[in-house]
From TrEMBL:
InterPro entries: P-loop_NTPase, Stf3_sulfotransferase. This is Sulfotransferase. It comes from Novosphingobium endophyticum. PANTHER family: OMEGA-HYDROXY-BETA-DIHYDROMENAQUINONE-9 SULFOTRANSFERASE STF3 (PTHR36451:SF1), PAPS-DEPENDENT SULFOTRANSFERASE STF3 (PTHR36451). The lineage of its organism: Bacteria, Pseudomonadati, Pseudomonadota, Alphaproteobacteria, Sphingomonadales. SUPFAM superfamilies: P-loop containing nucleoside triphosphate hydrolases (SSF52540).
Length: 462
């Protein structure tokens, strides 16, 4: 056991907060799935890209996947799963099922692009894109914007199932909401904490994460499985083809709605932090809203989310490893964002703080709408309904986590992000680190010090 793992184990055993064990239903599902495989009732699919491709072709009767770029990240991911992820039976079943689903939907998408050429001929208005690390408040900001009917937003079922089946007709019966609802129900049964960490429903506003997963791309896979070699490989690749496919799928979603709308899409996913150059190549006129949060909170909340997901798919989840991995991943997200952000025209970007959203969300949104050159008044009633509903949902349920559970310390984490915290004045008012983030001669009370501070070891709804 390495040092970080020992620290995490000690924290779990002696601290006030223990890492939650996985649901007993996961263990039961593993036993049942092994029995189904052994009996032949559920054939076991090999983690083999070619075999899964052929299976998807047989299931759909289609052959063209479109841009074959996705096969390379998929191959790297499959190899990492075999060598590093220590998948249990349920984890392997989920992985192969996910990959075959991706392939079926790529075949369906290409079918629509070929048979309905007007889909790709229709332009997209410059989108409004929320950019921030995992667990930095991007969901709240995105859903506030999605409450404005002057924007388009993806719904959960559309990001989980972006491509309708070939028999689908716009305005007709759509099987996707029910399919997405069943998937969400299964996830919540296997891991009820996911409903607290990221509450959603089939018709709720959702990020475009699933549109990137359609190209086997992104941190979603690293948050689900232990696949460090895939992560290191992806960090050095150009993501432009994945984002080009996102743009194609946005057009397909709009067409499937029977819509000729020219409204701008409201988008967000933390993957953009790593891929801003690719994002801006595909959406060069996008307007970006950057949100910033105390990195100690971001890392702690990210680790908690990853732990809850990884324990489903593997019996060997390592809290200490997760802590080090997501400290690295968060640092990389922020470092790359800062470099890429500096190259984006100031007229295309605005910065907001998580703690300001907590203190006065409406004041922050007024700033955002001034940046977008839009009147906020028509959007306020919808935003207020969303805020009221969210407060009601979180009245009794909270996302609890502690950095120490993952072998990490809040002050040490903040040291790693000193330049970033100084640039955006992110030091919580109640923190007392051994460094001063402000330059000499600027030791005034921070502009945001009056906002209610939140410690790195805390209860959070984000």
């Amino acid at each position: 056991m390495n040092i970080s793992s020992r620290h995490a184990l000690i924290a779990v055993m002696t601290g006030d907060f223990s890492l939650p064990p996985r649901s007993r239903l996961v263990s039961a599902a593993n036993v049942v799935m092994r029995g189904l495989h052994k009996s032949g009732l559920v054939p076991e699919i090999d983690l083999d890209v070619q075999e899964m491709c052929e299976l998807a072709r047989r299931q759909t009767g289609l052959h063209d996947f479109g841009d074959p770029w996705f096969l390379e990240p998929l191959q790297v991911l499959v190899e990492a799963l075999e060598e590093e992820a220590a998948l249990n039976t349920l984890g392997r079943f989920a992985a192969t099922g996910q990959f075959v689903k991706i392939m079926r939907e790529r075949l369906w998408a290409q079918h629509w692009f070929d048979s309905e050429p007007e889909i790709l001929a229709e332009p997209l208005a410059p989108p409004v894109i929320v950019v921030g690390p995992m667990r930095s408040g991007t969901t709240r900001l995105h859903r506030l914007l999605a409450a404005d009917e002057r924007f388009e937003h993806l719904r959960f079922f559309e990001t989980v199932c972006p491509a309708p089946r070939p028999e689908f007709r716009p305005g007709g019966r759509d099987r996707r909401p029910r399919e997405a609802g069943r998937l969400l129900s299964t996830v919540h049964r296997l891991n009820p904490r996911t409903a607290v960490i990221h509450p959603t429903g089939p018709f709720e506003p959702e990020e475009e994460l699933g549109l990137l997963v359609a190209s086997a791309w992104g941190m979603k896979h690293e948050a689900q499985w232990r696949v460090p070699s895939y992560g290191r490989w992806a960090e050095n690749e150009d993501a432009t083809p994945a984002y080009q496919h996102v743009a194609r799928l946005l057009r397909l979603v709009r067409w499937a709605r029977g819509s000729t709308s020219r409204k701008p899409w409201v988008l967000k996913t933390p993957q953009h932090m790593l891929d801003l150059p690719a994002l801006m190549r595909v959406f060069p006129d996008a307007r970006l809203i950057f949100i910033h949060r105390d990195p100690a909170r971001v890392v702690g909340s990210s680790c908690s989310l990853v732990w809850n997901q990884m324990t489903i798919h593997s019996d060997k989840a390592d809290a200490g490893w997760i802590g080090q991995q997501w400290l690295h991943k968060t640092k990389l997200q922020i470092d790359r964002m800062q470099v890429a952000r500096s190259r984006i025209h100031p007229g295309q970007r605005i910065d907001v703080l998580y703690r300001d959203m907590d203190a006065d969300w409406l004041a922050v949104m007024k700033r955002v709408y001034a940046f977008l050159d839009m009147d906020i008044a028509p959007a306020v009633p919808g935003m207020e309904r969303y805020v009221t509903a969210t407060r009601s949902e979180h009245r009794w349920q909270h996302h609890r986590y502690e950095l120490s559970s993952f072998g990490l310390d809040a002050e040490a984490v903040r040291h790693r992000f000193e330049r970033y915290m100084h640039a955006f004045d992110l030091l919580p008012a109640d923190a007392a680190p051994s460094f001063d983030l402000r330059p000499a001669g600027a030791r005034k009370v921070p502009a945001h010090a009056s906002a209610q501070a939140q410690p790195a070891s805390a209860i959070s709804a984000s």
